[in-house]
Fold:
Amino acid sequence: MVLRGKQLTVGFSQIGAESDWRLASSVSMEDTFSIDNGYNLIFDNGQQKQENQIKAIREFIDQGVDYIVLDPIVETGWTSSLREAKEAGIPVIIVDREVRLDDEDLYTAWLGSDFRLEGDRACAWLKDFLQESRQGEDIGILHVQGTPGSSAQIGRSEALFDAAEANGWNILQSVSGDFVQAKGKEVAEAALREYADRIKVIYCENDNMAYGVIEALQEAGIRPGTNLSGGEILVISFDSARKGLEYTMEGKIAVDTECNPMYGPALSRLILDLENGKTVEKKNYYDEEQFSAYEPVLAVTVEQKEYPVMIVSEDIIRERAY
Ligand code: GZL
Structure:
């Protein structure tokens, strides 16, 4: 974007390349902040390490970029680097995950998902499913968490903890799969050995860990599905990446709650507003969908608000941007 003849340089500190979701968010940023669109994007891959992201922020400051965009791997530990950006007069925009700071003025705006609501919608679906299918007895849950201390893990986990207490579900184990497929498979294999048929539900905090969990189930001769009394294990997931929705249509994932990675265009509009001297909202949330193939549950209610559940189809999958 060339504004008054000035090309904008954006330094983007990305977390890594750990999941389909993450790859899609990087594509969205690269497609949006392109030379053709009038930007100069400096893209840094943090390789899943906060120290790399902090180093990138300091390099962006030294390079005198116009904006710093940060997707923070975890919520804490950003105060000094963001204070240096503020002292250098460089606006910082946080995307996707959140930062926890004493001084909220250290960043200009945040753009991302309501992770707690995502978790609440997933748990509301599980509650309705168990009631509708009359399978609500003795629900043991394996909880496969995302990166410890990340906003997505915190929100989705807190939703499950509260729902389990409210509904009498038994969380057998909460264990991190770090949002990656291999770790998801590894922790599921260990849990199947330890808890065996006490596991009725596996709550995976992203699709890639769900893919690994499903591999582990199939190698153990267990079907992922919704017939719990018939020995199937119900898999819950988040992100709604294309492969996740294919698994949902096949019944391997019972419900997949979307987390939208395509934040590039909205971020560009926000920067344009800032360049034009407009004030922007501090917090900017996405509207997100929820998908299943289980037709009796077509909507869920969270805090008196109703959210539709989309029944997955070939058309929906074909039209997915990621
Ligand atoms: C959520 C995002 C999470 C995704 C994972 O906004 O931070 O990180 O749910 C990704 O797939 O790894």
Notes: The domain at 8-112+261-285 is CATH 3.40.50.2300 (Rossmann fold). The radius of gyration is 21 Å.
